[in-house]
Amino acid sequence: MTDDRTKPEIDAPTGPAPADLVIRDIITGDGAEAKPGDNVTVHYVGVEYTSGEEFDSSWNRGETIQFPLRGLIQGWQDGIPGMKVGGRRELVIPPHLAYGTGGGHFLGGKTLIFIIDLVAVG
């Protein structure tokens, strides 16, 4: 993956939020493929579906982040496997696959959009 990628912009969605996980490849990678439970290194940005407000971004911190998929929200566990290094993927994640439908988390009850660049697997 080239280091010249920039932080993606997420356009405000139109219409109702989807009830199921939506996976859309923006750029198809050609490197190693992520598998369930892998450790992944990513750059990402996340926004709330309804407001379009950004709530988190590794780009803003200026560095990628690495973690095991099994420790992430279900939408990432389901949406990243099959992605290849060098790829950029959009995930639209309904509340039941994110932080739940209740108010225990500040993102609880919200549909989330992430754009994820897969930098490394392993």
Automatic annotation (TrEMBL):
It holds the Pfam family FKBP_C. Its EC number is 5.2.1.8. The keyword Glycosyltransferase does not apply. Belongs to the FKBP-type PPIase family. It catalyses: [protein]-peptidylproline (omega=180) = [protein]-peptidylproline (omega=0). It is an enzyme of class 5 (isomerase). InterPro entries: PPIase_dom_sf, PPIase_FKBP_dom. This is Peptidyl-prolyl cis-trans isomerase.
